[in-house]
Amino acid sequence: MRTSQELAVGAIAAILGHTSAIPIVVHPGGANDLVITSQDTLDETISVNNAIKAAPLASNAAEKLSISVYNNFQSDGINIYVTGLGPNGDIVCLTSSGSWYTPVGNSNETSPQEITEDIAIPLGDYETTTSFTLPSYLSSGRIWVANGDLTFYTVVAATGVLSLVEPSAVNPDDPSADVNWGFVELTTDPGGITVNLSYVDFVGLPLGIEVQGSDGTQTALGVTANAVSSICSALATKSSSNGQPWNELCMTDSSGNFLRVVAPSDYISLYPDAFDSYWTDYVSQVWAQYEKVPLTVDTQASAGQVNCTVSSGNLTCAGDNRGYVQPAASDIFGCNSGPFAIESTDNAVHQAIVPRLCAAFDRSTLLLSGGNVQPSLESSYYYTASPTNYYSKIVHQYEADGKGYAFAYDDVTPDGVLNASGLLSDPNPTVLTITVGGPTS
């Protein structure tokens, strides 16, 4: 799963050119208004200057996967888009005729180029199903569903790598900013299918997923039909009670219609001072507690349980190659910066501790009884202390079955406990079904 990445704060702030609004009103622009970041791009694994193709993959049921999309949303203008990396590592987009379109980059062209190929698959009428088949395996894939038209671009880096520039849920000037859309993420390969619902960056058009295959039927129902407006209402109430800008996470079109709710980490990318002191006291209390007693982190791997203690301002853990400074709000919400940034040189212990420690902060379980072992507490304890990640808490409340990533490490759970990530997998899938507009019952 691609998780939330650090955005180009200065560039987006320059585009906004205004102070925070309640909520943010989008005003879509053109190619010149794109803010191209790692969060909104998909890179080919080959260079346009040296297109070496990969060897063919052995086939299984997932190679030509059947997709069914059920329309439970009363609109006649919904489109489906499928993007990802094909078996050769090149960018592919599914055309309306059911074949892959492979964009070809020009190393002499450095500005974003709009994809004009017909890659929009119209969704059928309300309460009908639209079906199509993936022509081959797909990695880093997304199936986008939009109440309107999305615009995709390509750009070639100086290294010759072609990138697909995808619609941004965060940039209010993105060409697709006034479209209500969402996506599911998937990878298919000889090992089968992995697919998930992700609200790590935003909640938009309600989608649910179901996989049928050799492991039976698995579902993640997604958010309810009116989840965005309900979440925004709940966030406004929370803002009134604790003075934090939760209500400003919402985006509307010029008519005031709610489009999406962006995650706190992405809001901070727009307004770096937001939530600045929100976690300060809590973090200080955590550090003070674990100066006195050890924090035990269950790596759920060969290292087993490791003890961590605070000394000289740093949290250090047995067997870890480096320690952890106190995290800021942006670090906790994003789980990929400050002490939670994972470097290529970090050992297995460090790579196991980061997600478990960040999950404990987001869920505010570190000071609870039993919180000295992470992870150990069940979900009924999550978000029960304050401060906490109210975006994640409220998003889960409006998921029909509680499933769907609401922050980057939402799949962290104690052994033997089902996680709330909404991640589905099957070694021999027969069909992936997507429901648009919220659960049918």
From TrEMBL:
Pfam family, one: Glyco_hydro_64
Ranges for domain GH64: 60-423
Taxonomic superkingdom: Eukaryota
Database matches in InterPro entries: Glyco_hydro_64 (IPR032477), Glyco_hydro_64_fam (IPR037398), Glyco_hydro_64_N_2 (IPR042517), Osmotin/thaumatin-like_sf (IPR037176)
Organism in which the protein naturally occurs: Penicillium daleae
Protein name: GH64 domain-containing protein
